Amino acid sequence: MRSALVLFFFTMCGVANAGPARDQLTSFSKSVRTMSAEFAQTLFDTNGRKKDQSSGTVALMAPRQFRWDVLTPFAQHIVADGNAVWVYDVELEQVNVRAQSFDEANSPLAVLLDLAMLDVEFNTVERPLSAGQYWLRLTAKAKNPDFKYADLGFSNNSMTTMRLVDNFGQRTDIVFSKWQRNPKLAANLFTFTPPEGVDVVGEVPASAIIQKVPN
User: Fold this and answer.
1) What is the count of structural domains for the chain?
2) What pairing do the DSSP bridges indicate for beta strands 94-99 and 199-201?
């Protein structure tokens, strides 16, 4: 699930393959620099059995910053500040950090803020109308992607669902609600300071922005 989140945070057609899902994506993302929403996420095993559920909030800022906060049932925070990706597991009192590479550009969420990257990073195809949603399937052009495909579901010019299927056949469904386009986001929302007393695992990039913990 963490891989799906971090990479939450990816030629069957191209720009010419217009359709209702593609049109709604364009309308949803046009002139957007920041976004925020709430989400409910469900993980299914290869037999379609429910394995895990969680919910929380997501925020995005162009060009490469995002924050994914799992609030229930167990708190976990993922922050990409443009230089590093921080994954803080509150229960384990552990922070994993790594350099933020352009792999994050392969995330379906990334294209919401940069539609120009859609046809650079993905092959896309329109899927049939289902459950009242228009669907656009994305398959990464990268040689070794971490997922088989991602289906983006749209209704009323808003992305309502993202479905990720990984290379093992597990499926993650993420249902979004309360989207805000171009909200004013706090300046420090996309910075992360490891709390005192937690273990920090990984190599902190030299370019990472690290705020000092106040005395």
Assistant:
1) 1
2) parallel
Distance between CA 160 and CA 197 in Å, rounded?
A: 38
Which two tokens mark 100? Answer: 């933020």
Report the Cα 146 to chain-centroid distance in Å. 13
Top pLDDT among 13 and 36 is at 36
Among the listed residues 118, 126, 124, 122, the one whose alpha carbon sits nearest the alpha carbon of residue 142: 122
Domain contains 115: yes
Question: In angstroms, rounded to a whole number, what is the distance separating the alpha carbons of residues 140 and 162?
Answer: 15
In a 13 Å sphere around the CA of 57, the CA atoms on its Cβ side amount to 7
Q: Give Cα separations from 90 to 71, 137, 168, 214 (angstroms).
A: 10, 34, 28, 20
Whether pLDDT at 37 is above 80: yes
Residues 109-143 have pLDDT tens digits of 888 888 888 888 899 999 999 999 999 999 988 88
| Residue 149 domain-assigned (yes or no) | yes
Range of the domain at 26: 2-192
Kindly tell me the sign of the dihedral angle through the C-alpha atoms of 29, 33, 37, 39: positive
CB 171 within 8 A of CB 149: no
For residue 105 the two structure tokens come to: 């550009």
